[in-house]
Structure formats: structure tokens, C-alpha cells
Amino acid sequence: MAAPQIFQLSVASGFSRLDPDQKLYAHYMSRAAWSGTRIILRQVSPEAISIFDFIIALYSCCNGDWDRLASQANLDFRDLQLFLDYAATFLSNIGNYYGSGDQKFTPSIPKEKLARLAACAPSGVSALWEQIRDPMFQKPPLSLGPPSKLTQSTYYLGYELENGDSSFWEDATLASEVMQELSILPENTRLRKERLSVETEVLSILQESVTETTSVYNDARGVVPRSKGIQIVTGDHKDELARINAYLQKALEYTCNQSQYESITRLQDSFTTGNLATYKESQSIWVTDKAPMVESVLGFVEPYRDPLGVRSEFEGIVGIPDAGETQTLKELSEVADSFVSKLPWVNGEGAFEKSHFEAPDFSSVQSLAYCSSIIFPGINLPNYNDIRQNTGYKNIIFSNRMLAESHRARGLYMVSKSEQKTFKQHRPHAYYIWVVLHEILGHGTGRFLTETTPDNFNFDPNSPPLNPITGDPVKTWYQPGQTWTGVFADLSTTVDECRAELVGAFLIDDLDILALFGYTQHGEIKPDDLVYNLYLQLGTDGLRGLENYDPATKKWSQAHSQAHYSILRHLLRDSKNLYTITCNPQTNELTIQINRTLIIPEGKTSLSRMLLRLHIYRCTADIASCREFYEDLSSIDDEALQWREIVIVNKDPPLVFSQANTFICDDGTVELREYEPTARGVIRGWAERDI
């Protein structure tokens, strides 16, 4: 495991602007967010909670004096640092699989030396060590994925990993049918198989909730095999959800408006009962809470890690608005409708786009708490398309997370040496605008053709709109009860991210957009500079994405990486001489160059064709055409495998974040405590969260 690159997510400037009640609200919402940590750990791997407890117990037994503990264990500084790097990386990813890429990482410190460290601690720590010493170091599993000898997923329990378990796919399909019949949404569920005898087994649909119930599914339709029973079991993660609700109850005392109050109370109801319909009510109200002084996100949000793309990881976020940057984003939001009309599917009919683009709440915040396996530079929520289309959504950019990008030079080695300085200088500027456009217009546009209820359509089925790809009337649409994630399953997240990335890249040359962010022909960095840099980023990010492709399983382990590679592959196939890739396996050199004169005539035109296809497939629920098109683009040939070997050799160090904590003082005020951007600082921050 490589030593991590550590950044501090500073929030002091934003927190200082809050009044006393707002600070108390931020504190209790942050405590609620961090209280979901053990849920995430349980969703990652069977051993993750015990590894977490082991790290925190070691810190506690020496009170953070790692040098003293190492001295007792006769461990030199280098070996101690190897463990601290692992611990910080584990804590920042909330588990022993990278949040970006889902590959398993193991300590670089030898097992026998870590055993000496554990032996110097109290007996409770030694007991934890015995639980984790083998799974902590063991490979496979290599990554997260369907239960098999190479991959594992704790969304699906009881399946034999060593030999693979063919019943997994059958069970997952059966559970999906049952859940659809019972109107159980999948985001906050897991599946567990238990064999009762040689001939019989039971499949439990686990729902996250505080309340505990068990009910047997009445198979009136006869769809369940006689050898299998199905039951619905609530109470998964009940202790953590109860603790979250307790902190939310405290936060209710300091809400600043009725929308906040009602959103939180429905959130509590959902966590208590497991009912996601109530959670969606909370999200609908949350969307209407415009520009709050303390922003928050709580719940089972992103389905990136589920092999089926429908079950979601817990996430807790609290942020403090950055007034200056938020004003710029607000100005973009107010005129965004004029840019929607420039997208390739908006041809005057409006069949595949809303008649009017409703300006979303768009804010830039400093994250105070970001409890998640991966900290994104920006988010667009909620993920429920009925809420997005009928009520609206929010865009949030995390300014202190974006700041880390200005210090990173991802893929710099792929750029010609003569261009590296300029690439590094311009990259954060182009990347920021790309992310902004990705969130507001990438995730915010589109209209699904839907049969909302039997025989009720949001289009004329007798005269359906023409498919701009084929020129024929559309033949597919969403049936009653169908959702984007349900129809597109394992492709839903990566195709959605790919489409959003394409929107941002397609619009990056718009002079009006760039002028909003202060980039004009009179500035130091000119519009052409940003456009050139962004297309060069499309090349380097496409190649870098290969690090998250596993040749052993032939699977992609990160939605954005698959998207980036697919975009590059499309540009290579569909444009003439836009990119030149030079590969030298002997020297591990991989270079990508771009012909500046072809960016608009070849590059943008190619992006337009790819974007149109993905958009129409998405709007019309055409999973068959989408799968054929997208899986072909993201398939890996021998040349790409050669590129991948060089990418792995030059892989960027893992990214780790040091995040702040808040504490209630004796006088009832709130203290903010930030931690140094070192492995020791990261571990101390987590230890003081008292999870």
C-alpha cells in the first residue's frame, strides 16, 4: 500500500460566521452524520468494524503517544509509520477497500510486527487482533463485487465466496420481484441467505430501521421455489440509527425554519420504521430549504458499491456555505436554462427535456462533516427522479474538497514535459467548471418518457416522439413503477456519471459560461486555455481510469473511471487524429497529446454524438441499446491492458482527508477542533469522535 497524500478539510472560516444556535445545530447534525460510521463499515466488509475498533483501541491505550507504544513493541519508526499510514487510509475510506475504486488494501507493515504492537496493548486489543489478523492481510477478495472467490459484498450475506455461488443472481432477481410486489424500495436493504437444511433455505430481505420485526412473505403467486422461504426482517443497523435519531432530536431544537424541522422529523420516522416513502417525503421538503446557513445530507444515498447498482451506502454530510463562491453558482443557476437549449437533444420538441429548466439551489460549502467512503468535490441530490422532475434538486460544491485538487497533479506524467507546468496550472480552473456543469446540467437535465400509471403517459403513446438516433418513433419507455436504477441496474450509476461528465465537457467552450467565472480573453488564463486543458484532462482521466479495471474479474470497480475510459475510447474511435497516445512498456512511459485545432470540429462533435446516445437511451429506458453501446466502449483490449500496466506503475498515492470535530463546552458554546494533515492527525480526529 502506497503512503497516502493527506489534506486538511479546513472549515474554520465558515464555522466562525455562524451564530450560537447555528453552531449548535451544525454540531448535532455532525454528530448524527458521524454516528453512521459503523453502518458504512458493516456495508463494506465482515472485518471492517473490528479493524476500526482495533485502530481506535490502540490509540486509546497509548493516548495517541504512538512513539511510546512502538518503543514498547521494539518497533522502528519506519514500521510504525507503515501502520499509521494504513490506519489513516482505512479511517478516511471508512473501511479496508478504497472508496474510489473499491479495491482492497492491506497494511505494508509485516503481520508479525503489527502483532508485536498489538501484544503491548491491553487484552481487549489482543482479542481484536486475533479476529482481524488474517482477513486484514488476506487477498482475495481483491475488490468489492458479486460474491465470488475474487470479490465480496456485505450487501449479500451467506453466499460461499470460495467456490462462487450461482444462486446469488437468482436470489437477487427473486428478491427484487418480491420487493416490487410489496412496494419495498431497495436503497436501505441488504439480502441474507441462510441454509436451514440440505434441502431448504431462507432468504431474508433486511431493512435498516430502529424497530425490529420479522414477517414471512405470503407467496400467493407461487413465484418462490418450494425449497426456499422469504422473510422481511427490519432492524438492520438499529443501534446506529437509534443514535442518529437521538442526535437529530437535539438538532430539532435549533432548526431555523419549518422546512428544516419537517425534513428532520420525517427523516427520523424513516430511520425508525425503514419506510423509504417517508424518506422521500423528507427529501422533497429538503429540496425546498433554499440556501440554509447549515446544509446537511443524511441517509442511504449512493448505490455505487452495490454490484446490482440499487442498494445504497449510508452517507452523512454537514456543510457551511461559502458566500462568495455560492453567489457565482447562484448566478449560473439563474441563467442555466439558456444553456440547456444548446444541448444536442433539445430540438424544439421538448420530448426529452423539461419544458422549463427550474433553477436549482446551488451552493458552495465547506464540509464540516463528510461521513462517506468517498468524498466527492460536488454532489447533486436527491437521487429519486420523481422528486427531481416534480419538486427539484440541490447542487452542492465542496470548496475545501475542491481546494485539494489544486495541489494534485493527477496524470501529470502522461502530459508532454513541455506542457506539464501549464497543465498543472490550468487544471484546477478547468476541473472546477467541469464539476459545476456536471452537477447542475449533467445531473439536472433530461425528461423520462414514462407510463406513470396503467394507461397514463407523460407523452402521446399513439404518436410517440421520434428517436433522434434512429429517426423512428421511440419503442421503449418506463413502465409503471419502474425507475432509472431498477431498469439500468449495474449500468445505472456509471452511465449517469458518464452522461453528466459529457454535458460538462460539451459546454466547457461556452464563452458566456466561462465569463461568469471570470475567464475572458483579457484574463491571464483565457477560454481557449481552459478548453484545451479540459480535453487534455479527458485524455489523462480516461487512461487513469484503467487503474480501476480488474483484469482478473474483467470488471470495473468505479463508476466514474469506467465513464472516463468510455469517453476517451469514443473520442479515439469517433474523431480523426484528435489524440495521439505514445506507449513505451520498457520505460513505463505513457503520453497523450492533443491536436488543439481539432478540439471543436472533431472533439466536441464526437462528444455530442456520444452524449445524445446516452441521453436518449436513458430517457426511453432503452437498456438493451445502451448496454450494447456502453459495454463495447468500456471493454478492454490488449493495447488497453498494456496502458493499464503503466498506469498502475505510476498510480497516484491514495487521497486521505483530515476532518474537523465539534464539541460542546462547559458554557454551552461549541468548539471547533481541526487536526493536522498527517496520519497521526487523521487518527486522532477519528478517535475523538467517540464512535
Number of strands: 22
Principal-axes geometry comes out as globular
Strand content: 15-25%
Number of helices: 25
Distance between the termini: 26 Å
Structural class: alpha/beta
Protein name: Dipeptidyl peptidase 3
Subcellular location: Cytoplasm
Catalytic activity: Release of an N-terminal dipeptide from a peptide comprising four or more residues, with broad specificity. Also acts on dipeptidyl 2-naphthylamides
Pfam family, one: Peptidase_M49
Give a brief outline of the structure.
Among the domains are: 151-238, Alpha-Beta Plaits, CATH 3.30.70; 322-359 and 406-649, no CATH class. The chain contains 25 helices and 22 strands. It is 46% helix and 15% strand.
